[in-house]
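Fold this sequence, please.
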Amino acid sequence: QVQLEESGGGLVQAGGSLRLSCAASGRTFSSYRMGWFRQAPGKEREFVATISRSGGSTAYADSVKGRFTISRDNAKNTVYLQMNSLKPEDTAVYYCAARGALGYYDAWGQGTQVTVSS
């Protein structure tokens, strides 16, 4: 099973930008659809963005559409989340996840904290 590790979180002012990275182990990274999710304090984990195995297809939650961009580099076994125009409500722990052959996200990273100050 693929193992995932996020990085790139931190503290940023509203309107600023961050780029999250998620490095995957193993040689089958390109066989997984990848996703980013987030969980704010006291809230359930929610979907942020997803990208197809080739990177040719992406989808976003309405709350981040036009501000966030998901991408991947299969040669580097890495998926990214570029976050622009950040808002305080984007504050959360961000997780990357891999969706395997069974059709659900069954591999998760440990998460990286993103805090947006107003």
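DSSP finds no helices and eleven strands in the chain. The first strand starts at residue 4 and ends at 7.
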